[in-house]
Amino acid sequence: MLVNDDHSTQKNLPSSSCIRKKRTVSRIKQNPKQKMGDIEDLLKYLCQRDKKNSWLTVEKEISSFQHSLLEWYRQNKRQLPWRQTLMEQHPNPYHIWVSETMLQQTRVTSVIEYYKKWLQTFPDIPSLAASSLERVNEIWAGLGYYRRAKLLYEGAKTIMSCFDGQVPEDIRLLQSIPGIGPYTAAAIASIAFNKPYAVCDGNVFRVLSRLFSIDLDISSSDNQSFFRSLAQFLIFKDKAADYNQAMMELGATVCTPKNFDCKHCPVHHWCNSFQTATERQVPLNDIVGQYPVKFNRVKQSNEELQVYLIVFANYFLMLKNVSRNLLGNLWHFPYVTLKRNGNELTEDEKLQHERCLSRVLHSCGYPLNDTNDLLKLLYESAIPIGQVEHLFTHIKQTIYVKFVRLSSETSLVVENSSHRIGGIDPNDESIEYRWLTKEQMETSAISRQMKKVMELYQQQKKQKFIHSFFC
Length: 471
Ligand code: SF4
Prior knowledge:
Bound molecules: iron/sulfur cluster
CATH architecture of the largest domain: Orthogonal Bundle
Low-confidence stretches: 1-37
């Protein structure tokens, strides 16, 4: 017996309190290498938990399930740009790679625009490999997780140097390329080359957990292996490309997190959660809405920033994030971090931000003798224009925005090419800065939260009562 008896002896669906209790499949946890070999035990587990899952052991039923799903997909699939590009009768693997990487960031509707822009700029792997990281970040700007853009770029270089510019079909070779992990490798191998590898994104985890009323926490990596084995078992091997896309499409358009449409679902006949709700004559949400089970929601920390829009003539002062963190290499407005994890930053930490700004303004020719002059400028001239919020996976940022117009009588050197200034003492890092107009910002690598700051500025500028100040 693969699973602990506590699970296997349950005949009925677990109660909600039971669902909330954390579970993992014990043997898979103990012996992860056996997960694919244990498919029979896995099926036994699902069938013993609930007879409604027993169609999994009937070949004809599995085939009907697959055909029903594929037929629905044929008739209902969305016309997405990466589904329309062919290379020797197959979807172009480079396009699948780009789209799958982008889809890990945000919703399909937002990705389309970025995807088109990306392919206009880098139509193929040689053009991406020959570009620069700065240009790659500019095109990716706004999607977040810039590390993924960098990995796409590095991956393209690897394909040029190790694979003669051709995306390999072999899943192990695919995983040797920077930026291509097991998920993306399975997506490229199956969608572009029709190889029989199941692709499991969040949509597929949700569909499977509802199809078989699986009360295992999908945020646990052990349990994810369980779901992957199940997905691999169900795949229609001859039509892996369409089957994988059909499962993901079902989760994205019908079996959605909240507004699931079971009545029009092509597989409701096989769906444990739907059948259970129907039998018990209870609202669908009482059963379907309980799945998937997820315990380890990411804890978010709070951060507060004070951002300064420092403007001279029509130019905004921008600094480059030179660190290797989430937003490395992107341009941002000068800011001071006020709080991290709800705690105020120390005076020393704040002073470091202020000293950096002071050095930049001094380098442009602004008459500042020391940091006190800068503080005087910021406190006396800065006008608060509002705040914006931005969510990263782990961080909720509250950004207070102040506007500072430098006097036109000041003689400043304002250029949009970037300048680097070295540290004055060993504690100072070198800083890169440039001055950009609003229009130039649109084609520069600027983070999403700084774009929100700019949008706030534009909205405020439109309001008449402050119009005279901004212009
Ligand atoms: S019947 Fe409902 S819960 Fe089941 S797979 Fe379809 S949409 Fe999801």
